[in-house]
Amino acid sequence: MPVYVALSRAVNVGGAARLPMAELKTMCIDARFSNVRTYIASGNVVFHATMSARQVKAALEARLKSYFGRQIGVVVRTADELAAILEANPFGKAAPNRAVAIFLDEAPPADALRHAVGRKHEEMRLGAREIFVHYVDGIGRSKLKIPAASDGTARNMSTVARLVEIAAETIA
After folding, report:
1. pLDDT (tens digit, 9 = 90+) per residue, 58-92?
2. 126 — alpha (psi -120 to 50), left (phi > 0) or beta?
3. Would you call 117 helix, strand, or coil by DSSP?
4. What's CA 99's distance to the chain center, in Å?
5. Distant-in-sequence, close-in-space partners of 23: CB < 8 Å, separation ≥ 6
6. Three-class SS of residue 96?
7. What Rg do the C-alpha atoms of the chain give, in angstroms?
């Protein structure tokens, strides 16, 4: 049975969409996912499911919409895909809390980085279905906006690494 990692967009940031992780876990169990584990209060969840990634996404988004009364995006990756993203991080020498992967449903457009605005010292690279960003001066000081990433959700490499570990534990 596949191990999936689901990343909810805009959950528990800025107080707009408060979601206790116990509620997220219950949603996953109600969707018939098993071995459900959440990680930090930002909408990260690892689990087994017999469904396809597309079905997992639809099931979680439907439950989140019911909970919040509005659409909350979810990005889904398999455990292997997430491990490959961590390995592909072009900013492996950067502090892991200053390098992020912005997870997208589809491949970013080839010209995505050209349309970024507010760039100062940030470094950016395209991935398969991600945009990698190294916030040299720290994410809190950045004014960077990447229009192609507006429907995505970002996780720093510390979080990605921990989710890879949890997924590996779930497989074992």
Report:
1. 999 999 999 989 899 999 999 999 999 999 999 99
2. beta
3. strand
4. 13
5. 67
6. coil
7. 16
